[in-house]
Design a protein that fits this description.
Elements lengths: L3 H13 L6 E2 L5 E6 L2 E8 L1 H4 L5 E7 L5 E8 L4 H15 L1 H14 L2
Antiparallel strand pairs: 1-2, 2-3, 3-4, 4-5
Length: 111
Amino acid sequence: MATIDQIYDIVKDRTWQGKIPWERTARADTFSAVFGGQSITLRRDSSSALIGGTPRLLFRVLDATGSVLDRVVIKLNDSEEAMAFFDLVKRYALQIDEQLETLLKNLETEQ
C-alpha cells in the first residue's frame, strides 16, 4: 500500500530531476502538479509563525474533485532540505531561471 511519505519522497526526487510539471496557483506560495485525475500541492504556510509557531510546508494529494486524499506537514525549522525543495518547486513553477536568463540577454543587448 502506498503511503504519503513514499509519494512525497518520489515527488522530491523527480522534482530535483526536473520531471514534475509544477505550476503556480492563485494562492501565494502554493504550487501544484497534475497527474491524470489526481494532483499534488505544495504550500509554504507562514501563518503559524505569526503566532509564535514554526513555518511549515504542506504537501497534499488531491483527487479529481479537489478532495484531500492525504497530506504531510514538514516543519521548516527541522529541515533545510525541505526549504531547498520548496525553493526549487517555486523556481520551476514561476520559471525564474528562464526569466532571469531573458533579463540578462536583454540587459546585454541594451546599449
